[in-house]
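User: My advisor, Dr. K., asked me to get a structural model of this assembly before our group meeting. I'm new to this, so sorry if the format is off. These are the inputs:
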Amino acid sequence: MYQYDNIDQTIVNERVAQFRDQTSRYLSGKLTDDEFRPLRLQNGLYIQRHAPMLRIAIPYGLLSSKQLRKLADIADRFDRGYGHFSTRQNLQLNWPKLEETPDILEELSKVEMHAIQTSGNCIRNITTDQFAGVAPDEIIDPRAIAEILRQWSTFHPEFSFLPRKFKIAVSGSKQDRAIVQAHDIGLEFYYDKKQKMAIRVWVGGGLGRTPILGSVIREHLEWEHALTYCEAIIRVYNLHGRRDNIYKARIKILVKALGIEEFKKQVEAEWLHLKNSPNTINENELKRVAKFFTSMPYEKLNDQDDVFDQAIQNNKAFASWVKRSVHPHKQKGYQSVTLSLKPHGLAPGDATSDQMRIVAELADQYSFGELRVSHEQNLILADVKLKDIFNVWEKAKAHQLATPNIGLLTDIICCPGGDFCSLANAKSIPIATSIQEAFDDLDYLHDIGELELNISGCMNACGHHHIGHIGVLGVDKDGSEWYQVTIGGKQGSDASLGTVIGPSFAAEEMPGVIKKLIDVYIKQRNPEESFIDTVRRIGVNPFKEHVYA
Amino acid sequence: MLNSQLILNQSIIDDEWTFVALPSENEEIKKQAGKVVLFKLTGESSPSELQINETVIPQNSKIILPLSVYLKNREALKTRLKNNEIALWLATHETLHALITIEKDINIFPLIAIFVERFQDGRIFSLGNLLRTRYQFKNTLRAFGDVLQDQLFYLKRSGFDSYLIKTGKDVHEALKALQSFSDPYQGAVDIKEPVWKRRVRS
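Assistant: The format is fine. Below is the predicted structure of the whole assembly, which you can bring to the meeting.
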């Protein structure tokens, strides 16, 4: 993975000093609340219901074991011994003290980490595929460009006070796993006819209050121009995006208002001036960064391993976990393993400091000391030998990290919701846990098969509910909490937004509602047909009728 | 010590310019989504004819005029412009279009100032960048209004060299913020090349 040089380290150190100064000016009354707010947000610090929340950046979801141990230590020393992995591949601490955050940032800087631009109206943490570099369907490993984008966007002087937040995702695989269509900018890498790396540029996607899938603004962009083309897009947005209404301030609203053709015309006109300007990436820089993301020193192994095969044969629990949690790898004899942060009955995406240390140990022992965070809020060991998978399982299982539910109904994607977040209209964690408890029968879960259930506690959509096969949105009606249900959303290359099935439900009705949706699916499905495909085939009505019958 | 809130480059200096405001108009309070609108839309609400006509232009000093007032009185101001007595200001919601269509060479102005009503209004950075790079403005570029210490570094990188710090804020503290980061990543107006072109990196 990327390693800091003096330049990176100096920037992060200077940021710590800057934020320490800003915090002390705030505490001594020299900065008003309004003046301090964007400054703390650009360091990931929210003021929440019970305490501040600190969002720590995990650039494109990649972590070393050393970094994860540091996060565990920070969670113990400054928080309550756990953290929450978010849908943007970051880590959130729920109980830090405002006056201690500069110390937390200083600790982070010792392991090449920070909280820069994890919130605020600026370019946020760049996200990508959790299987980047190891997926068999990968065309281009997008991480080098993701790192170049990270550096370029860090304290970008022109784009640090945009009309609203700005999210960029990069992807380089056949099957999109980075939801490029639901980002302000999505960069999709491919090889063009001349076998040169090129980018399909998506713009104006996003979830939130007004969910919109992005449009292609440029089918073919040579990779050298990735930064300057983004600059052209963001400059048009910075100058013309709406600042009068926070709900209409995202780039998607501007693109929609102008129409993609007019927006493209303005961007292209801007780009004429920026094309080939100094931020144009060159071969040297790409090479320099790409060398941090070359293949791991894999051993030459067979596709098959006796130890692994026997364990599958002899141990049903192991076999059903493997079916869900082990993913194909480009290298013979290796697989990627997802560790579930979704044990039934606990907050989805949460990990205790002890679990973090166990995962760090597993990464050191079995996966070259690295791991990934997925936007589905699980942790991934990307490079595990077939013969080691059983050992990984045993250890993971002993620490509640091996619930065999990856990609299943109880692998719920969920924001912290009203228990923690002051933006939320409703709680989301208790909904998730009550559904998990209602579907605790593993055989039944596996029979239901692939199903993504996403829960957001408000229309800001941190739980990505619009693209859940089943989406649940917390809404506030006259001061009480209700839940609106959508079905038919999907992430991926054939992404779609879900349709609302009807009036919302009370919290205690939710497990029953999900059961009824599943009943319709079980009854109507064709052999081997997944929930989302059944919804796409038969439409929303049969589900609606049964739920409201 | 000077009793001034004005920074030019790295120093606190006295302001030799007289600022000319537009006469205020009773603006209705607009609301969107139940909240008072704090930012004007780009291109919205140019000063009215009445405002422009009622602006008093001081005769015997170096003055910073609203862009609209300058455009209206362009002919009458020719001599004073030659004597380097005329500078311009515009607000973040104005565009540069009118200026650059009428003046082919904007370097006839010794100073252009951008008014930022609220510090969160990031349009000021794009305007600075455009003036310096696209329109090749070489003279003093000043930020005024809600200009605070914690945005100075970005303003400097976007081409500003003069900052009128908001009244009540410590200008000496603010001066330090110009040095927040020693070696920024990306190319911008002040340091054109990105760090990977400036240095050998491992």
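One thing worth pointing out at the meeting: Residues 6-27 of chain A form the longest helix (22 residues).

User: Perfect, thanks a lot.
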